[in-house]
Structure to design on (688 residues):
């Protein structure tokens, strides 16, 4: 049902909802809480002193007024300040702004429970504008879990809570039929669908939440796997319609590379070449950690396809990366004296440039095409596209991958990923692809040295950057944001690079961020690659794929603001050459928790190990809306935290598929409808 059919949702609200990708009531029900507000037992001052993580967070405290409250302040601002003590007799304070009428509530000896963000100011634990409860009122709420939804401008939590709760009431009357066969629900102990919907939004108790979440994650994985299984079977019958031969020129090219391929690379190259010269169309995933050397494998394939007189295209997630790949491939082709024409296609090219590029692609003059999403523009036609490579493929949806492959007759597909997941999971998640793993780093790479530091290390950090620059190396500094913003207190690239230039006047410093004009981005990246810039201050636009092997230092400001997977990707921008490289994680806020998390990165350079340790640290109970891997953005399920559920869903899907691969039995009738709906609607939204 259209979201506008709901009472109180007009055109304007609907347009706000579209920002959250909510268009229908079904979308609204699938807009799961990000976390829950749990009314926990009140804490005491002693608890606050003992657990530093409580500061700055929401807590409840019970207290007795120990002094008649004061009102102070001038004309416009009136501050009511109340002194209290907790049951141990320890003092804390509460302040309210412009609410002088509350004064009468706080008679000497009155007892209340306050709930809000607690902070220590001038040695006193203080609430500002907390919510106020009588003990009886609080006890009623204690233990309950109120949903907190992801929001956007114009949509409040209150509004969502009301709409969802209204919808669920109605839903109960209309009871959606259960579509997972009974035997599956029994075997894997799955709650019923409607129960799960009700309890993911408004769990009465923690266990209900757990059961709801389990059912919904299972359901997401289950549909996803059934859909990919059917995709795979349709591919298996695709014969290789291209006449591609192994060429000596390619063997010579490999021989002539300035480095020796690792065994893992060699094996992967073999698998890829066997695929596209074999009887069936290739659908292969190359999985390898950052810096493991996936790109050269892709390049070898592109060259061999081009030399066989077909076209090959490689789609990458950012313009910066497209330009870089294009330039380095052009260099390689020239150096090796190969007669191959390559083309760049990115969104920011002028209409005329694009038209000319389109013409060369359509006529077949362009043999290798490198670009961004621009490669799958409807208007673009290829002459004879035989190979499609998507780099860092998790940025693209399955549907995009498919639409790309529909451009050719049915091209070979190669997908590259640095997502650190174990092979068993990869086999399930990439059900429609064969997998090659590059599990070995090039020889001579020294492990990156890591340090987790805070502001007190600033001078040393500056000296360190200077020293590396003097030694002829280059550095990245990452800031979490572009420019100063009111509600965000992290370093920003523009101010930061100004200040850094003052402190290190002998270094050539420039900044880069996503909002710069594409031509400017290109110019900066080109100059950095050519070592005309020593220190590049950047946002995370350089996170994926950027390759400047002479860079040896990665300094990440406010590293507590990034996820571990993102930090690992960023760090992967150094350590790409022979020289010793360093990664400095600078933190703005000191806390044991933050330190522990960053220590995981400090102690390991292995992507998968990091993901696993991160999960261990959080503990299996700590997964309220925490999605560790943004790469596979399922609605609620997380491939790491729910790895066991994923396995079960995969087993169940296979059992069903093996017994009834077209889902034709009565028992599977409703499931079939769902899978078809899922393939059409959801599969393209899941980024794998
Ligand atoms: N066998 C090798 N020996 C030495 N250097 C290599 C080898 N293979 C690749 N390289 C170089 O290592 C660097 C990183 O390789 P590449 O860019 O292919 O990594 P990647 O796996 O794509 O990493 P990312 O996921 O970070 O993009 C490049 O400079 C590349 O030329």
């Amino acid at each position: 049902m259209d979201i506008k059919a709901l009472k109180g949702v007009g055109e304007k609200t609907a347009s706000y909802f579209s920002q959250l990708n909510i268009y229908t009531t079904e979308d609204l029900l699938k807009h799961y809480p990000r976390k829950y507000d749990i009314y926990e037992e009140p804490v005491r001052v002693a608890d606050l002193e003992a657990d530093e993580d409580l500061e700055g967070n929401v807590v409840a405290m019970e207290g007795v007024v120990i002094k008649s409250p004061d009102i102070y302040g001038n004309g416009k601002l009136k501050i009511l300040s109340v002194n209290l003590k907790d049951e141990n007799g320890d003092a804390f304070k509460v302040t309210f702004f412009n609410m002088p009428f509350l004064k009468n509530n706080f008679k000497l000896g009155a007892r209340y429970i306050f709930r809000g963000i607690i902070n220590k100011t001038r040695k006193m634990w203080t609430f500002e504008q907390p919510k106020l409860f009588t003990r009886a009122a609080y006890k009623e709420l204690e233990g309950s879990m109120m949903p907190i939804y992801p929001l956007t401008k114009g949509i409040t939590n209150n509004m969502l809570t009301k709409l969802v709760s209204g919808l669920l009431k109605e839903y109960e009357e209309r009871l959606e039929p259960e579509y997972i066969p009974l035997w599956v629900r029994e075997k894997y102990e799955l709650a019923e669908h409607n129960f799960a919907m009700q309890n993911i939004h408004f769990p009465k108790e923690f266990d209900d939440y757990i059961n709801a979440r389990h059912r919904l994650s299972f359901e997401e994985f289950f549909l996803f796997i059934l859909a990919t299984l059917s995709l795979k079977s349709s591919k298996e019958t695709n014969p290789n319609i291209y006449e591609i031969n192994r060429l000596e020129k390619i063997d010579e090219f490999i021989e002539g590379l300035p480095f020796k391929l690792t065994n893992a690379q060699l094996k992967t190259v073999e698998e890829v070449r066997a695929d596209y010269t074999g009887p069936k169309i290739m659908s292969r995933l190359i999985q390898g950690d950052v810096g493991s050397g996936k790109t050269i494998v892709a390049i070898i394939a592109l060259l061999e396809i081009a030399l066989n007189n077909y076209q090959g295209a490689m789609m990458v997630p950012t313009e910066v990366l497209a330009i870089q790949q294009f330039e380095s491939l052009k260099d390689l082709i020239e150096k090796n004296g190969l007669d191959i024409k390559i083309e760049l296609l990115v969104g920011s090219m002028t209409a005329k440039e694009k038209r000319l590029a389109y013409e060369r692609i359509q006529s077949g003059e362009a043999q290798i095409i490198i670009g961004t999403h621009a490669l799958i523009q409807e208007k673009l036609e290829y002459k004879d596209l035989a190979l499609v490579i998507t780099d860092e493929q998790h940025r693209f949806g399955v549907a995009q991958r498919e639409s790309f492959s529909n451009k050719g007759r049915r091209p070979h597909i190669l997908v590259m990923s640095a997502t650190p997941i174990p092979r068993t999971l990869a086999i399930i998640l990439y059900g429609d692809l064969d997998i090659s793993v590059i599990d070995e780093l090039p020889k001579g790479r020294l492990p990156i040295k890591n340090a987790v530091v805070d502001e007190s290390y600033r001078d040393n950090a500056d000296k360190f950057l200077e020293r590396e620059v003097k030694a002829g190396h280059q550095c990245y500094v990452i800031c979490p944001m572009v420019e100063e913003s009111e509600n965000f207190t992290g370093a920003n690239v523009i101010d930061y690079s100004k200040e850094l230039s003052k402190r290190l006047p002998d270094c050539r410093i420039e900044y880069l961020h996503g909002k710069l004009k594409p031509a400017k981005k290109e110019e900066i990246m080109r100059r950095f690659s050519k070592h005309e810039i020593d220190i590049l201050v950047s946002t995370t636009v350089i996170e994926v794929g950027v390759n400047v092997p002479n860079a040896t230092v990665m300094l990440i400001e406010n590293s507590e603001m990034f996820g571990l997977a993102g930090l690992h990707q960023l760090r992967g921008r150094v350590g790409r050459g022979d020289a010793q490289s360093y990664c400095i994680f600078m933190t703005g806020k000191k806390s044991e928790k933050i330190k522990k998390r960053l220590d995981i990165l400090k102690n390991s350079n292995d992507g998968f190990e990091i993901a696993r340790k991160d999960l261990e640290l959080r503990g299996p109970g700590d997964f309220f809306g925490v999605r560790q891997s943004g790469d596979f953005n399922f609605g609620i399920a997380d491939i790491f935290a729910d790895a066991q559920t994923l396995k079960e869903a995969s087993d169940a899907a296979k059992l069903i598929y093996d017994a009834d691969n077209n889902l034709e039995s009565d028992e599977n009738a409703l499931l079939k409808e769902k899978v078809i709906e899922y393939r059409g609607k959801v599969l393209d939204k899941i980024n794998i």
